[in-house]
């Protein structure tokens, strides 16, 4: 075998374990889901195998699923914007801090050590009728009765923002950290104010990080179902909740499979658009 | 079950007159012949002896009671480990079992005869050898008959406890008189908007919708009226709770003042000193729970565990721990002083005062109603 042929094979040999794992743990289960989505649910007993389009027809034409899907995208978009607005200053501060950058980064990573559900439930102790915020407001005499703050769409967005903010900060930080600070100094030496230097130099250069964080927050947010269950009211649901209900509560695995694939396709299109214009390299850096 | 226990049970049956002398010696002879005929390879069958049994239940104080009063003593006595898991609801658990390999899950603390029927429909049921569970004779016939009617001639589960899903209310804001007067309709009373809760379970929502529209929950004639009641409740409710722990937290923290609730959990809140009332409205939701053995389980170990759990000492201790009356017949077993004070307790042992879900009726409507509820919940 020639050296060229051996070198051409080497990456594939090195990639083989990872590709095998991805094939067995991701592609094969996904294929099962695809097959299942064409089956029909049986009220009791085994589902009916075959090639039926009923589930796809329901998923694509039923207003109920379309409305919840659009609402899911709306909630994810609002959450992503909130994460960007809160995350950018924090990431900027960490990137520009001298000496204690590592401590700040560790603090940023700390929430990942605590269960997502516990973090979500912590808001009940903060915003509940007998929670910390109401206790403070009442002890200061600002309100006489506790304010009902929990169990609505706003608290769902709050919980999601809490969950996703570190992903946004990390991505922006990676982008900002790679920008040469002397560029800002050069801009100010040429007459720009600090604000103008930021707007015209730093911000455009950090946009790939912002976009990568935005994509990550949006995709993770759109796929969540715990937050609406814990912090939402009776009506609040995201698309993943419908998937959960179809599969778990209604035991309608075929419809649940079609719904989960629909969500996957919608999010896949968004990732494809991102990749087309910005590429995945920045995302990999942010996750790395 | 070891051979000594097996022999002791056989001897007990003979001494109690359940089997004849001829049959007793015949069985002993058969056991001896089987022992004599076994090959040297028989010792390898020990590899199939169950060293552990998987048990899944409702979590919280219920699981604590099971662990403390049943599983730990059982393991200490037999050496068989009980691995206990929890689930938030029967639907979730059924989905897990369907997705699992046979034998992965063994015993489940299931609720309602409709669950018993569903597991049979999905081919997930085992068949118990009741000779290995002599304590079954202490169980109320009313509970056993409900399961026998689904699987005539055999059982896949033993009844274990019962309770109700009634109305829980904070006495600081709602008096006993008001609760009795309004009954189930208090859950759609606009005066308590934002302070009402409800279980996210579609059966419970429809059951209470039927009560709110003066219909028989086991024979609903106007389902649209029920859906309208569910919608009215949804618009007034602050939160649909999804677990017993969440129910207790919402009431204890005064996030909600009234909700339907599981009787045992409310008793636990009362024991903790919370002034929470509990009221079973006419036709309130009664249910019986069973210990269901799934297909593919190690039957001898499971039957031994079930018998151990039905032993009055164990059963009463678990009942007092989880606050649900046991399945033991009060006319046959002295249930002590606490159990008669538990909500839903029936001293007659007939359970004639409770209304249970008709499994055929509810399972027959499950597909349509569970899906419709998902839509109604979201504003449709």
From TrEMBL, chain A:
It comes from the Bacteria. The keyword Transmembrane helix applies. It is a multi-pass membrane protein. InterPro entries: MetI-like, MetI-like_sf. Its main location: membrane. GO terms for cellular component: plasma membrane. This is Spermidine/putrescine transport system permease protein. SUPFAM superfamilies: MetI-like. The chain crosses the membrane at residues 12-39, 75-95, 102-118, 124-143, 155-174, 210-231, 251-274. One of its GO terms (biological process) is transmembrane transport. Keywords: Cell membrane, Membrane, Transmembrane, Transmembrane helix, Transport. Belongs to the binding-protein-dependent transport system permease family. CysTW subfamily. Residues 69-274 form the ABC transmembrane type-1 domain. CDD domains: TM_PBP2. It is found in: Cell membrane. It comes from Thalassovita taeanensis.
From TrEMBL, chain B:
The keyword Signal applies. This is Spermidine/putrescine transport system substrate-binding protein. The lineage of its organism: Bacteria, Pseudomonadati, Pseudomonadota, Alphaproteobacteria, Rhodobacterales. It holds the Pfam family SBP_bac_8. Keywords: Signal. The keyword Transferase does not apply. It comes from the Bacteria. It comes from Thalassovita taeanensis.
